[in-house]
Amino acid sequence: MSIFKHFFVILLLAGVTFGSSACSGQTAAPYAMASDTMLPTFLNDAPPKVRESYQFAMANPHDLETVPCYCGCGKMGHLSNLNCYIKDIDAAGKITFDDHASGCGICVDITQDVMRMKREGRSAKEIRTYIDGQYSGFGPSTNTPLPE
User: Does the predicted TM-score (pTM) go above 0.90?
Assistant: First the structure.
């Protein structure tokens, strides 16, 4: 089992929530969100949008590993937008966080766009095309493979 599949199972067991607003009449988001209790302490005073992006990255690593980042973080060894949030997940499912996205608006904006487009029902290829077109002017991208 891949490390991200293993991690997803752990998240489900640990209380990942799926976006739902049954009482408000809104449609549920088509993705899971990790509990805010799972966030690292360096995010305690972070803006809600940043915290939400980390929650999304934790619960949906597969959605960000095919999306590049354009903030220049490839020079830091990042391979995708996911690496702006998560350095590693060990075999036991323990996350080693990266604090890079906590201070980088481009990383967070990319993730927020992925979340929005997932809610709109867009495919991984459509999301990738949009991200490449929208952010390529900011800087070099990470070396991220295209989604299949």
Answer: no
